[in-house]
UniProtKB/TrEMBL annotation, chains A, B:
Source domain of life: Bacteria
PANTHER family, per the entry: ADP-RIBOSE PYROPHOSPHATASE, SLR1690 PROTEIN
Protein name: NUDIX hydrolase
Residue span, Nudix hydrolase domain: 9-143
Keywords: Hydrolase
GO MF entry, a single one: hydrolase activity
One family name in Pfam for this protein: NUDIX
Amino acid sequence: MEQILPHLDSVFSIDCVLFGFDGKELKILLIERNEEPFKDWWALPGNIVGPDESLDQSASRILYELTGLRGIYMEQYYAFGDPHRHPQGRVITLAYYALIRLGGDKELRPISTYAKRANWLPITDLPKLAFDHQKIYDKGLEKIKRRIKHQPIAFELLPEKFTLTQLQHVYELVLGKKLDKRNFRKKIVSFGVLKELDEKQKGVSYRAATLYRFDKRKYAKLFGKEISF
Amino acid sequence: MEQILPHLDSVFSIDCVLFGFDGKELKILLIERNEEPFKDWWALPGNIVGPDESLDQSASRILYELTGLRGIYMEQYYAFGDPHRHPQGRVITLAYYALIRLGGDKELRPISTYAKRANWLPITDLPKLAFDHQKIYDKGLEKIKRRIKHQPIAFELLPEKFTLTQLQHVYELVLGKKLDKRNFRKKIVSFGVLKELDEKQKGVSYRAATLYRFDKRKYAKLFGKEISF
DNA sequence: TTACTTAGTGTAAAAAATACACACTATATT
DNA sequence: AATATAGTGTGTATTTTTTACACTAAGTAA
């Protein structure tokens, strides 16, 4: 019913679960709150949706303000709107996740005002979270677990050039289980969306692995949108 | 960012894609609008979220008000919030879908005030829809296509006792393709979540088929939540 | 009794998933 | 130069799953 537009107090926010991978661990970005309620608690970064922004634009802006990153794959996945989720009033929040390759060059730009600090914390050892943010995170993880099996999102967590072992590592972390090396390589290569490069890994003290690149064009041609990793 | 609660004008609504199955066709419930904007257009039924309702509660209430039905499987699947999706102001809407067995006993209760009438229309022949409702519907169909492959939602569209042919028919309609009878039966029976009854179909002018029932307990024990139809 | 309509059933072939172990190669160490 | 170390890279056999395919059985209607 959309023909009446009553004047209502309702606040609409976006919270982001930013998954980051540094080559070793899967982490998420959390901020330490500097204000009540939940002062000193860790929370998911988020913000209010602006009046003239689309939801996706808003999510991108928030990510940019918090990390300085642009062009990151973000996806809306659920709305949380329990009337009592925020102690001070009704706030409906939309959850987005993003996948980010950490380390290397770029540092996070200092976080905006409302937090003491921001940190990437490993998902294996998360603190208690403010509001219903644990629930939001849980659902986000569940979502990418499902999605990584059918869509090429793993590459978003890796540098442009990566080894098959690194790729397998990402799958293992997200899915939370070990995979067989030979079967994994057989399958992933058989899709034909990886381009084997003439380059090798550098700076390792053992046999250097071959580097690969995800071939977006080929992927789009072959599958449109779907695949089964 | 949830510690500040500015006074903002924003309207938050829920729109429902109600899929119904009458034994023959897959339909959705549409209302014919009686007010501007989009007067005389067909639109998805929806309403404003009340100040003290959870989102799921709100969706259930809206469904009840429109159809008189309770206890229906409903699921939130996406938020639509383009700043210009509603010509008169910012309205963010949450889309829910529901699956409903039509025909038989219950009639729809008369629709509340804001519509001229409501109708179940076959999805194969939908009119132009108001607002961005075509997009909302498209995404909803996509969603149940995906979900019917992994979760036992097909049964929501069928009476409690059903034949395997009816079940196959639902899958074919949702997925939009023909399935092989023998393979379908083999697979669906092999999951062990159907209970074969001692009853047969009645009132048909040909050999009556055996009736089955979906066994929720067994399903829960076997799979928790997942399956692959 | 016959015609009609849908129910119900099995098998063989192909494809996909799984389980499993060792030799190779680059570097670092002595 | 020889050796230790650590991760790379590869093949095959078995099992499971998916696919393709056509006829007989049972009940109703005329």
